[in-house]
Amino acid sequence: MNTRFDNLKKVPAEPAAKLLANANTKLQTKLAAPVSAPVGIVLKELEEKAAKIDILRLLSVAIPPREATWWACLAARDLIGGPDVKPVPPPLACAERWVFKPTQENRQAARVAFEGAEMDDDTAYCAMAALYADGTLGPGDMNQHPAPPNGVSAAVLAMNMIAMRANVDRMQIYLDILIDRGLDIARGGNGKAEAGAGAKLEAKG
Known about the structure:
The protein contains 10 helices and no strands. By secondary structure, the chain is mainly α. The protein has 2 domains: 16-62 and 170-204, no CATH class; 65-158, no CATH class.
């Protein structure tokens, strides 16, 4: 029988524990699954334990950097008011541009946007994810220096959490929407597919 966590073809086959360790990240939930358990099995246990934040945390390290950056951009779009809002903050615009065309030029633009972001511009996390996506601190000379091991995942998780706090009046529903987006992206989708449980609950609300 298919489950919510099947067919995550973008997710590496390595154990979830290894992916978390590589990103210097720990789950807050105590697991019964063995250390060798793949991501799908751990996600299923986390769902059974209603550990939605840990599901976001695990997805942030399991989804490849480029796709994870897009996941963060979708949350940032929620934060600024939707997909059609203009003008778009420079960090978000540059991150989206890099996702669609991951050139060094676009990565450099993301770096400039990240470094020049206003203090209250939370979309800077999207540019940060794009900047660190290839595992280094940036293009040019910075390409010789490794990025923090959790650089992308921390930025992506932070962007999702900030968007969640902005939706505190429907937090549990919105968490499901964030999770379903991440799962859709992990299956090779664009994250804009109809969210599952969360969207249905909201529609009934």
